[in-house]
Amino acid sequence: MSKILTQAGLLSAAQTLRTGIAEIKTLADVESSGQGFLDDGRVTIRFEPHIFHDRTKGRYDATYPQLSYPEWNPKIPRSTEHSYQLFNQACDLNATAAVLSSSWGMFQVMGFNFANCGCNNLKQFVSLMEKSEDSQLERTVIFLLTTGLDDELREHRWEDLARLYNGKQYKKNQYDTRLASRFAWHTAHP
């Protein structure tokens, strides 16, 4: 079975969300450059040290300052490979907190949102994220519906979507303007 996002998966998601394929591709582009997997088959992740700090109550701040600190730093991790290095080190300390503190797949849904993705536990969430990009999209559709973010996506309320999907620091990475720009591109290049 292919792990690549299919047209059928896109159509199903668009129908369920009552939106277009351009909106879904826009979110994928901004979150992961449209890649749910690395070339070696590993799922795309981003380990977030400030979330790991929250999930472990700062327990590792002093001894592992690259893995755990209280304030978001957009420069860390430097790449997906760096994310995996940090993630693997964090797993050695607290695997559950590491999974909760990472965003997963093409749409970069945070592990701590596993229940909002229709998963009963973290193991199921990770398994479905590792299955395929269609599976990642299915979890994201459930997440958007469960959290009420489908309206922001459908109505192209990019600033609201960016703030609620990416957090209060969304302006620093220009998530809202990047969403608007990518949507304009997808609209012009269907």
From TrEMBL:
Residue ranges occupied by any N-acetylmuramidase domain in the UniProt entry: 22-184
InterPro entries assigned: Muramidase (IPR024408)
Pfam families according to UniProt: Muramidase
Name of the protein this chain belongs to: N-acetylmuramidase family protein
Taxonomic classification: Bacteria, Pseudomonadati, Bacteroidota, Cytophagia, Cytophagales
